[in-house]
Amino acid sequence: MTTEVYKAIAAITKAFSSTGISKDSKNQQQGFMYRGIDSVYNALSGKLAEHELCILPRCTERVVSEQVSSKGGKLFYVTVKVDYEFVSAKDGSKHVITTYGEAMDSGDKATNKAMSVAYKYAAFQAFCIPTEENTADPDAETHSVDALMALVAEMDNATTLDELKASFAKAWKLSNKNTSIKSHYEKLKGAFSDE
User: Fold this and answer.
1) How many angstroms separate the CA atoms of 50 and 56, rounded?
2) Which residues contact 114 (CB under 8 A, 6 or more apart)?
3) Helices H, strands E: what count in the chain?
4) Backbone angles phi, psi at 30, to 5 degrees
5) In the beta sheet, which residues pair with residue 104?
6) How far apart, in whole angstroms, are the C-alpha atoms of residue 124 and residue 126?
């Protein structure tokens, strides 16, 4: 007999299978894009309510160390271990997911940040939440990158300019057919223009 908690998790996973959560927040210091906790809460809240699923945190471990920032100030580095109890409001059935979160802060927010990270990754993994940017088959991407790397090897072994141009043209065609390897091709193109 299937309990309601697994039905709810499966239903929410299905709801996320066609739409993910995009990386629309930007880290200003390092410049990378990420999925913020607010985006996760906003995307998940309605689905949890619809399927009557509660996610209840229990922090089972917290480790704090004090470090010095590059400017000589204090930084608090926190690691938390959190058990998230997924509970169905329909029958009280539950499932526990344990995850870790890490964060640094110069004030009193390191624990809150670490809890947010732990929650995000518990949700990503429990509901298999995809990013909107990568809807391609990861196996296809791997094969395309392998094919591009084979062309790089072919270019390495070229003995004439015509052979080199032919291999480069194949790489160009391959990158235009598969946008997931476009960035790899751009790096390759940059290597040629630098020499």
Assistant:
1) 17
2) 78, 79, 80, 101, 102, 103
3) 6, 5
4) -100, -15
5) 77
6) 6
What is d(CA 129, CA 126) in angstroms, rounded to the nearest whole number? 8
Contact 174, 186 (CB under 8 A): no
pLDDT band, residue 193 (cuts 50/70/90): low
List the structure tokens of 153.
């090897």
CA distance 159 to 177: 27
Instruction: Supply 50's token pair.
Output: 């619809």
Mean pLDDT of 92-109: 93
pLDDT tens per residue, range 165-190: 777 777 767 666 555 555 555 555 55
Supply the Cα-derived Rg of the chain in whole angstroms: 23
Give the pair of three-digit tokens for residue 104: 């640094």
Strands (E) located in the chain: 25-26, 33-34, 53-68, 74-88, 94-105
Write the pLDDT tens digit of every residue in 38-64. Answer: 888 988 999 999 999 999 999 999 999
Q: Reduce the DSSP state of residue 178 to 3 states and report it.
A: coil
Provide the pLDDT for residue 140: 46
